[in-house]
Amino acid sequence: MLCHISLFKIKTLSTAISIQADAAGYEFLIIEHKKFNAAFALHGGHLVHFQLKEQQPIIWLSKTAIYNQQKAIRGGVPVCWPWFGAADKSLGENLPAHGFARTSKWELAAHNEFPEGVEIELRLTDSAATRDIWPFQFELLLKATLTDQIKLELISKNTGNIPFSYRGALHSYLNISTPESCAISGLNNHYNDSLDNGLAKSGDSTLQITGPIDAIYKKALSPITLSDKQFNRQLIIDNSGNDAEVLWTPWIAGAKAFADMPDQGYKTMFCIESAITNKSGVRVKPGHSHSLSTTIRSHTG
Ligand SMILES: O=P(O)(O)OC[C@H]1O[C@@H](O)[C@H](O)[C@@H](O)[C@@H]1O
């Protein structure tokens, strides 16, 4: 499953679910269900693998991803939180891009196996280290329901006594055959091009992948479909709680510049992210929660 990492089993949680670790003690939750295989890294609360039996993986993971506590994993579904992109200057200098959730160690809060799949809950709460850079109390829950589809729900709960605002994303790296085989439809026509100083532009409702893309599309009004001719499948993506879909591929130069992506890696991935990118973010009052989600299902033929 994670064929480029050697893992040993630490604990069996149910027939399909176990905790396994690499030689350095980096922990994964491994799911070997009769319908699919999947894996999460506890570091980052990060889905790193999902593959239905007899199909190509839905989620892309870099073969040269770096697994250590300081780094976000390249691939999978990074949880970007409590900000998206660069941190607000008011929080300080040199803060990590896309927040601290993807480089924090999460805990397994619940797991349940049933005939059609599994439910997994991973939790991250504030600590002295998080309050040092983001002065709020919170409970972040990633609820994953894995069946013949992936459903990820990120619930941001304010456990303190002052409101907070957050931005973020479920930054899905989708596994594709080749860029030329793919077309994306169902997008909103309006986007801001991050490769052109955030300029507001309008595009066609179907997008081909022919070069680098880094764009913030206004929230789609219906599900988005990534059609992949060579894999003979459509990935159908339904997001909620978001204000945008961020589309991203680093393309040739970008992949070359990353130490944790093979030079050719850009050819087999494409990101469609369920994101909150508005400057003001989503405000969550004490005792309240907000949910950001993405559902990805595959339709073959
Ligand atoms: O390399 P990172 O921090 O994981 O970010 C990857 C990309 O993430 C995307 O969401 C951003 O729009 C891009 O600008 C960014 O390059």
UniProtKB/TrEMBL annotation:
A Pfam cross-reference name = Aldose_epim
Question: What superkingdom does the record give?
Answer: Bacteria
Task: Extract the CDD domains matched here.
Answer: D-hex-6-P-epi_like
State the active site.
171, 273
Write out the catalysed reaction.
Answer: alpha-D-glucose 6-phosphate = beta-D-glucose 6-phosphate
Task: Give the signal peptide range.
Answer: none
Q: Which GO terms describe its biological process?
A: carbohydrate metabolic process
Q: Which UniProt keywords apply?
A: Isomerase
**Which regions span the lipid bilayer?**
none
Molecular function per GO: carbohydrate binding; glucose-6-phosphate 1-epimerase activity
| Alphabetical list of Gene3D superfamilies matching this protein | 2.70.98.10
Q: What EC designation does it have?
A: 5.1.3.15
Q: Which PANTHER family match?
A: APOSPORY-ASSOCIATED PROTEIN C-RELATED, GLUCOSE-6-PHOSPHATE 1-EPIMERASE
Q: Which family does it belong to?
A: Belongs to the glucose-6-phosphate 1-epimerase family.
Q: What is this protein called?
A: Putative glucose-6-phosphate 1-epimerase
Can you name the source organism? Psychromonas ingrahamii (strain DSM 17664 / CCUG 51855 / 37)
Source organism phylogeny:
Bacteria, Pseudomonadati, Pseudomonadota, Gammaproteobacteria, Alteromonadales
